[in-house]
Amino acid sequence: MTMRMTGLFAGIGGIELGFKQGLGDNIETDLLCENWPEAQTVLRRQFPNAELHSDVTDLPSLPGNVDILSAGFPCTDLSQAGRTAGITGEQSGLVVHLFKLLNQHRDKGLTLPTLIIENVPNMLSLDKGTAMHFLTSELESLGYAWAYRVVDSRFTGVPQRRRRVILVASNELDPKRVLFADETGGRSDSDYAMDAFGFYWTEGRGGLGWAPDAVPTLKGGSGLGIASPPAVWVPSEEDPVRAFVTPTVSDMESLQGFPRGWTDFDYGLPPARTRGARGKMVGNAVTTRVAAWVAGRIGNPGDVVCPTVDWGQAKRWPNAAAGFDGTRERIEASEFPVLAPYEHLLEHIDVSTAPNLSARAIAGFHSRLQQGNLGWHPGFREAVAQAEDAHLLGNALGKVNK
């Protein structure tokens, strides 16, 4: 039987594409809701058979036959990189409309869909767990059992260290049999090559997001408010300038599990703004292979293999838990439920064509790096200094040649 899917806060359809990757012809997307015009363009092209609605606040109802409801509601007010206003923030507070729609659905006597929520791990600790208390209380008031797990996208094989909370709620299947039927304990360091390192070039005094053989989390903005992808250091590169490159939008799509070109459309914008919009959309998306793993387990639930442990007294919600009707269980689970074959970073980024960091970017990063106590991987600081010198020399020679 084909399941019917609806996506709220759909972005560019990462969850929906992931479910298609995981379930094939056994899933169809009927309705998508997204208010960003550029993302709407992507959804129209990539999901031509789905009804598209622009505003969750005035969506009249859910489809009557919906089986799976995804809701990757905005993390703007929950993310450490955002405003951290909490679940009541202007953007993240839109999740209340999700529960309004679910209550309307139940009041019509319709079967509630299985719910998939994705968000940032910061939601577990923000405001002493207020966001999670709100979400789980609302779910239980609808009769849902729920479970969530923090996962790292590298478990799917993509070289992006992206940690996200995946929450599954259902009144038909046990969410624990979806999220806790797989466990590996984590990846071995031997899985990672030492030929490329990802980092945030917009930082320096604070955390670099350092990641061997991976990029840190792709995101729509940065600590400096610059919408930009992270950088990659390739130590073997002989040209100091070319040793520091950034993934293209196509590379970012690949690092998120999308086919290359998923967002490559005419948005009626200048080229630079188009690249910026595409990068932001991809950075805000859900890694499709994470959704595919969830979809596979919804289609084929397994026996729970992760043990229940004492909840403890910590104010922060644990990285994995489950609950129903007022009870809560802390689950001992790693962020790597399965270990798909690892795809190395330089398999996703073509260093020969990737743009290098500009002279201004390298100079600003080097200045901030010298003011902090980070970036001490052998040879890294020296390579940054050499890149800055090479840029300066190139600029000087260019002026002379003029």
How is this structure best summarized?
This protein has helices spanning 14-23, 37-46, 95-107, 130-141, 176-179, 249-255, 271-283, 288-299, 345-348, 359-371, 380-401; strands spanning 3-8, 27-33, 51-53, 68-71, 114-119, 145-152, 160-161, 163-170, 197-199, 211-212, 215-216, 231-233, 244-245, 308-309, 320-324, 327-331. It has 402 residues and is α/β, with parallel strands linked by helices. The model is unreliable at 75-87 (pLDDT under 50).
Describe the 3D structure.
α1 packs across α8 (about 290-300) and α10 runs antiparallel to α11 (about 380-400). It is built from 11 helices and 16 strands. The chain has helices spanning about 15-25, 35-45, 95-105, 130-140, 175-180, 250-255, 270-285, 290-300, 345-350, 360-370, 380-400, and strands at about 5-10, 25-35, 50-55, 70, 115-120, 145-150, 160, 165-170, 195-200, 210, 215, 230-235, 245, 310, 320-325, 325-330. The protein has about 400 residues and is α/β, with parallel strands linked by helices. About 45% of the residues are buried. The protein has 2 domains: about 5-185 and about 285-330, Rossmann fold; about 190-285 and about 345-400, no CATH class. β2 (about 25-35), α2 (about 35-45) and β3 form a beta-alpha-beta unit. It has a 10-stranded mixed β-sheet, with helices on both faces. Strands 10-9-12-13 form a 4-stranded antiparallel β-sheet. A two-stranded parallel sheet has the order 7-11. One of its GO terms (biological process) is DNA restriction-modification system. It catalyses: a 2'-deoxycytidine in DNA + S-adenosyl-L-methionine = a 5-methyl-2'-deoxycytidine in DNA + S-adenosyl-L-homocysteine + H(+). One of its GO terms (molecular function) is DNA binding. Keywords: Methyltransferase, Restriction system, S-adenosyl-L-methionine, Transferase. Its EC number is 2.1.1.37.
